Automatic annotation (TrEMBL):
Region described as Disordered: 1-23
PANTHER family (alphabetical): FE(3+) DICITRATE TRANSPORT SYSTEM PERMEASE PROTEIN FECC-RELATED, FERRIC ENTEROBACTIN TRANSPORT SYSTEM PERMEASE PROTEIN
Protein location: Cell membrane
Bilayer disposition of the protein: Multi-pass membrane protein
Keywords per UniProt: Cell membrane, Membrane, Transmembrane, Transmembrane helix, Transport
Annotated family: Belongs to the binding-protein-dependent transport system permease family. FecCD subfamily.
Pfam families referenced in this protein's UniProt entry, alphabetically: FecCD
Keyword Cell membrane: yes
Transmembrane domains' residue ranges: 28-47, 79-96, 108-128, 135-154, 166-186, 207-227, 254-281, 293-318, 324-342
Key word Ribosomal protein present: no
Annotated protein name in UniProt: Iron chelate uptake ABC transporter family permease subunit
Length: 350
């Protein structure tokens, strides 16, 4: 009982309490508004632009004979996939950074997305998987194996799994898995044809047959990961203090890792390996929420789809009549941020 007062002050140091809950309310509303605006823009902007009036009519009084309404209807699954994949990757990235105390953690950088992609390719090549239900299980398996391998490799040596070692291990393992993936694709034209449009990361061409199977997995991952906010706050103080506060550190990390693997596996199976979303958004969110993961997680979940949908919209209009896949644009946005983080030594740990 004597630890109650110090524990409270340890969990919420001055920099956490400086962000008053009342100040977060307008920001939460602003995040919701941005999400709605990005979703509307995703439905309206493309090779065939749709006016806002027509968009509202298509959503409220759909006319199958109206060509503009049909275009809006065709963009709805694409937008929903973008919302779900962006939310999953943003939330997973924030949780990964918290559980590893590593500002460089991201499903793409640490090789989780590459592991999922390699597993999907092997599923296509070895087992002849061609449907989404098969993709998702292989994606889960690959994401889990990659996460375990990266952490095990980074843990070797005297200092354990430091942030820089995790980033290097993830980059090295990701490069190796991509090389193996390409070797499989080169040796099988059929596998390449099945995989090539999925590989770069895209929300284009996805339909309800992708959305419906992935929803239960994403719902489980969202709920589990959002509930880890208090646990991640304790882990951010260090393992010893977290144990002193009554946390089961091993169980906390295992549950958080489970949520991350489910989110990354489902998002990668649905939209392909899209990188850097989980790196950029949590750092942006911390600039106005502070280090409290009870707020970082939901804000990351809401704002990551805004970035993904914005990149998708940009990809539709910069090279008409073709499109640039969203996975390419998120890499263009995220790579400079990653380099900046690596060069900032004071951000070596969270």
């Amino acid at each position: 009982m004597a630890l109650d007062a110090p524990a409270s002050s340890a969990v919420l140091p001055p920099q956490r309490t400086s962000k008053r809950p009342s100040a977060r309310g307008p920001k939460l509303i602003a995040a919701i508004v941005l999400l709605v605006v990005a979703s509307a823009a995703s439905l309206a902007i493309g090779a065939r632009p749709i006016s806002m009036e027509t968009l509202v009519q298509a959503l409220t009084a759909f006319d199958p004979a109206n060509g503009d309404h049909a275009v809006v209807a065709s963009r709805i699954p694409r937008t929903i996939v973008g919302l779900l994949a962006g939310a999953a990757l943003g939330l997973a990235g924030a949780a990964m950074q918290g559980v590893a105390r590593n500002p460089l953690a991201d499903p793409g950088i640490l090789g989780v997305n590459s592991g999922a992609a390699l597993a999907v390719v092997l599923g296509i090549f070895v087992f002849g998987v061609t449907n989404f239900t098969g993709y998702i299980w292989f994606a889960f398996l690959g994401a889990a194996v990659a996460a375990v391998l990266v952490y095990a490799i980074a843990s070797l040596g005297r200092d354990g799994a430091t942030p820089v070692k995790l980033a290097l291990a993830g980059a090295a393992l990701s490069a190796g898995m991509v090389s193996l993936l390409n070797a499989v694709l080169v040796s099988s034209q059929q596998t390449f044809d099945t995989f090539r449009f999925w590989q770069v990361g895209s929300v284009a061409g996805r339909g309800w047959d992708v959305i419906v199977p992935v929803l239960p997995f994403l719902a489980f991952g969202f709920i589990l990961t959002l509930l880890t906010g208090k646990v991640l706050n304790s882990l951010s103080l260090g393992d010893d203090i977290a144990r002193g506060l009554g946390q089961n550190v091993t169980l906390a990390r295992a549950l958080t890792a489970l949520g991350v693997v489910v989110l990354c596996g489902a998002a990668t199976a649905a939209a392909g390996p899209i990188g850097f979303i989980g790196l950029v958004i949590p750092h942006m969110v911390r600039s106005f929420t502070g280090p409290d993961y009870r707020w970082i997680l939901p804000f990351s979940m809401m704002l990551a789809p805004v970035l993904l949908l914005s990149a998708d919209i940009l990809g539709r209009v910069i090279l008409p009549p073709g499109e640039v896949q969203v996975g390419i644009l998120t890499a263009v946005i995220g790579a400079p941020v990653f380099i900046w983080l690596v060069r900032r030594r004071k951000m070596a740990e969270l």
